[in-house]
Amino acid sequence: MKTITLAAALALGFAAHTAQAADKMNDLEIAHTAYTAGQIDIRYAHLALAVSENAEVRAFAETMIRDHTAVNVAAGDLITKLNVTPQDNDLSRTLVKGAADKRAELMSLSGKAFDCAYAQNELGYHQVVNQTVEGVFIPTVTVEPLKDLLSEALVTFKVHEGHAEQMVNGLKCG
Amino acid sequence: MRLTRRQVCFGAGGAIVGSALPASGSVPVVVEIRAFAFDPAEVTIRAGETVRWINHDFAPHTATDDEGNWDTEELEKGGQATIRFDTPGTYPYFCAYHPHMKGVVIVTA
């Protein structure tokens, strides 16, 4: 339950921030934030591969790198096709700052403590991102190809969320 | 979109990877990979016929034999691989990257 509580707290805080910011976000800002969210998870995964010796955690991290890279390549292709430039924004900066703090926290851990913290963060992170993409970004964007890309990416992210939940349960973090 | 094509022949002697399959005269049975699922999850073919997997997801996938005897290897979005099954039997498989994704190829004589 600790995981759910943490995730819920994260979701509430982030969702409140997101809902407030979404009114002011345009398509290019949403594209930037979505791309940034993927890059952040890739960095978490590289950290996990550098620290963890747990086979399940490492396999999950490799999947995150593989899948988020694929989604971001597709996003990059779309950006190129549309000939636009994503715009940095407050929400992207908030995500980046929060991720830097979380990585610093994770880097102070090792062994099972790291594995549990990484797994719980992955679950909470995907819950929050998925809630934001589904509830805010997709309804807000106006460019159809971006809406389609976010919708398809959400399918991937939801699978990750389920996978993260299995990882948390499997690690028996207590 | 990156298109890749791969063809494999799987028989009693194991998997043989090649640039082209011997003509079998039959149209491959297609398994679409979409939304992290094999569709259809179960296909039945005759010995000597082929199955073609096509990935429509952003995420790369594989179709990998449970016993490790054959493998499409990584299929990016738009990628496809064709495998010929020469030996009757039941061949369960999964995605090596997302192991909850499962399917089965049933080969009749």
Automatic annotation (TrEMBL), chain A:
The keyword Iron appears for this protein: no
Name under which the protein is recorded: DUF4142 domain-containing protein
Pfam families (alphabetical): DUF4142
Signal peptide: 1-21
Domain DUF4142, residue spans: 26-167
Sorted UniProt keywords: Signal
InterPro entries: DUF4142, Ferritin-like
Domain of life: Bacteria
UniProtKB/TrEMBL annotation, chain B:
CDD domains noted in UniProt: Amicyanin
Alphabetical list of InterPro entries matching this protein: Amicyanin, Cupredoxin, EfeO_Cupredoxin, ET_Amicyanin, TAT_signal
Residue ranges of coiled coil: none
UniProt protein name: Cupredoxin family copper-binding protein
Domain EfeO-type cupredoxin-like: 22-107
